[in-house]
Batch of 4 targets.
Target 1
Amino acid sequence: MLHERVGAPRTVAFVIITWNSELYVKACLESVLGLGELCFAVYVVDNGSEDATLRILEDTAAKDARLHVLPQAGNIGTTRSRNIAIREVLDMEMKPGYVCVLDSDTVVNARAIEEVIDVMERDSTIGVAGPTLVGADGAPQLSGRNLPTLPIKLMKACPISSVQSRGDALEKPSAPIKNGIQDVGYLISACWITPISSWERVGLLDEKIFYAPEDVDWCLRCHMAGLRVVRVRGHAIKHYYQRISKKRLISRANIEHVKGLACYFRKHGYLIHPPLRQRNHTEGR
């Protein structure tokens, strides 16, 4: 049975982090601030950018009071950065109804954001939802995935293409799509939309994880709190997918990702079988 989510204002606070993002951030901000009254506030944490990112942020903030820039002295990672901004939202005297965690290499539109909010307003058991993401070429991205396992991660890291393809296939969620909604193990955090109450119920991101998979951990904690994690199949937002971990095989990002995975698997006590059976969206409804 569906449960109405009532009383939440139809406004969104956006949480964005930047790090040498000059090629993307202007278009991202223009799309967010262009949402009109739907955009309640924007908090951008800059991780010590060495390019023109901070200048773009400050110039834009001077023109629109909804944008708040929170510069850091250096790169403190995705988890701490997002938590800094989320705390700002949670501490607001007048709070929005929703929080959108957004990558700086995205371009949003009102139809996609409102479509996700429509879904959450109809079902209060949804803790986080993500819209369809497409690349610059319009190709859909696998934004909703099964919870990771060690075999999946090893297969995806294998240099043999057939083995990689097997790992990719195991990541794809198998839950049926009903009314344009699919339950997934986790959503990549390029675009999350959550009721503000989800952060109060689940808590902030785990700062023991510097960079990935903090998004997986938080989604699994949503499941543990009895909340659904869903992908909404509908209007898409553009995601250019600036994956810093793919630039070099040996890099700080990749090292931190391996450390983050080790922390995640140790925390949740599994390597092969996730602790929760992935929810089928027809159960209990």
Target 2
Amino acid sequence: MRLSRLLLLPVATLAVVACSDDDSVTINSRPPLGGVRFINAVPDMKPVTIRMVDQLLWSANSVNGGSYGLRFRAATVHQATEAKARHIRVFPADSNIAEASRILLDTTITIEANKNVTLLLVPGQRTGATDSVAFVTINDDVTPAEGEVALRLVNASAPGLTPASVDGWLTADAETAPTGAPTWDNLASLTAGAYVTRAPEAVAVQTAADGAPATLWGADAPEGEPEADGIGALAGATVGGSALSAYVFPKACPTVTGAITVANCPAAAGSSGSIRTAYANPGVVFFVDKIPAPPTGTGGN
């Protein structure tokens, strides 16, 4: 199972090799690459499929082999993507070809070389259309100092949703009440807070609506695993060289009162009972922004 962490590498060093008629070997040059991750922060729509449609190679997408697409509060890993202006489309994830071909968003976003970004899918301008969406670009470029861990809070709640602006604290765990001034104060909608670096140790992020700490939403950060037997480390709060983002999301289908079900909330399609329970309130989800450097001789991220 430890080998699976190698899939988190956002940019792989790859070469395409082919034989010519004279049996010589040619190596195609790799284009400039950036790392692109998709996160779905649209709380009232069914899961989506996201594709770069301008070319096949070096193109990020949200296809993960599942039946329901990229659901609310879910993410891809950073994927190696050719750095230039990229044509991106978003579709509903559906087994009906007519529905699955319906374009929710058609846009072009420029990807920079040697930089990791999140394309955060959020509700668009809702002027009669209930399925308008848009992207917000979040810069994920961070390199923690050796032996340290970087953490930040990202407010993935769109304007008009709860929470609006948020406060965030670092605590020992998600059961410990925060004290003192927030680590991230009055973080506006669809905004990333600054990274905070610290020594590796277990930690949680707790959040609340700005100025209203009585109701908290939080989560324990993944602890990770150190490298062993030549296998690179699994990123986490206890592993130096890691960087993590805690995203605070609104509840799913904000107009629904009571329990969230597949019948009353399109965002719940394909989700488990525990996920639907979590959807009934705002929540915090951690994502990995940087994995520790792999053992010497195994490549880099």
Target 3
Amino acid sequence: MTHADHILIERHDGFQTLTFNRPEKRNAITSPMYRDLYRALDNGEADRGVTAHVLLGQPGVFTAGNDISEFKDYAEGDKLDTAVDGFLKRIATLRKPLVAGIDGLCIGIGTTLLLHCDLVIASARSTFRTPFLDLGLVPEAASSLLAPRRMGHVRAFELLCMGKKFKADWALSAGLINEIVPESEVKVAALAAGRHLADRPPEALAAARRLLKGDPAEILARIDEEDRLFADRLRSPEAKEAFEAFLQKRPADFKKLETG
């Protein structure tokens, strides 16, 4: 399977689906995948035949987040790819609704991108986690701004700083998702939502969404601020230890850095 197969793009009657398709790596997202997502969203925004976008994963896994090997390469001196930043700014400035169907694992950016979605449907077995601090990093996707707004500081701190794994019922009560359905119905429900949105008057829908979302300038500024900190942290001793530990399948030892 080539990277071109890792994001499946399908056009339906009035909406499009973008499906993570790298199950052998738990749908971990690479730079080429981010570029494919960006292009698909950009093309859908320009197409009058597309009224909404729907994000999907595979049974049991939405995405495990960013591909850690790329972060490790940057930490060791490679140039950081701009594809992630481009994707984040694209979802922050969409005119058309964004729907997500989640079944199973939803980690890192898989969780934070949900803060940009208008409707999120998840199965009861879905789990949500943002292990940024576990990797010596900081939150991204403007989640440091959007999560406290949506769920309050206390729950946002649990999600973004404690790094705990949360089940679907917590995500529902926190306002991260809209609905819990049986795992066999996630895709069906997400497609039904896309179909329903496709039947709405598109210009009125876009205008109503813009009123709800407001000016994206503050979100874009926060993405830039997080990006700068994220890039700095990627080359920190804490991040290097975390990446090595992850790839060696051992616990990270941050205490040794204090005395090393």
Target 4
Amino acid sequence: GWLWGGGRGALGGFLVAGVARTVMVQQMTFCINSLCHTIGRQPYSSRCTARDSWLLALFTFGEGYHNFHHEFQHDYRNGVKAWQFDPSKWCIWSLHRVGLAHRLRRTPPEKVLLAEVSEQERRLAAQLGPECRLPQAIRAHLEAAGRRRREAARNWERRWAEYSAAAERRVDASCERLAEAERHLREAAAHLRATIEHWYDAHQLAQTALA
């Protein structure tokens, strides 16, 4: 700044490139634990005040998807959806591809989907209240779909645990055993997604009846 504009240039460089830049970076960082608990949606859990905000994600390089972070704290991503703006996630993934980051921890997509469904189920239960206003047939259909989904979720969790254990003992486990565990996991995941689709249909039917 001094070379460009003398004393005024030096002062401007100090205030704009120094002080203002630092203040803006710090304020955007602070917004993650303030505005991200006030503005946005709660698609994964309403048990805490953290929220997902695409607007704040633009200014915090993806950290604005705070509800996901609170529900799945070990995941290296914040914007888990492919269309969500998360440069931090892309940077970490790129470093992993060139061998500069290792053992990235990712939440299985089925687990993320189950969190979304569970949150929608909680909201529907709160909407219905103690006195259920749904017709008996729709209520029975919704409860049956929920039972099938929970049963499929338990089966998937069991298969996931089996596969994870076999993968960790890759040296000791035979290739056939690992392949069998992976096949069972894929089948359980497919069944789980089918039951979730069925539950979504029942959920939509209930919402239409309440409208």
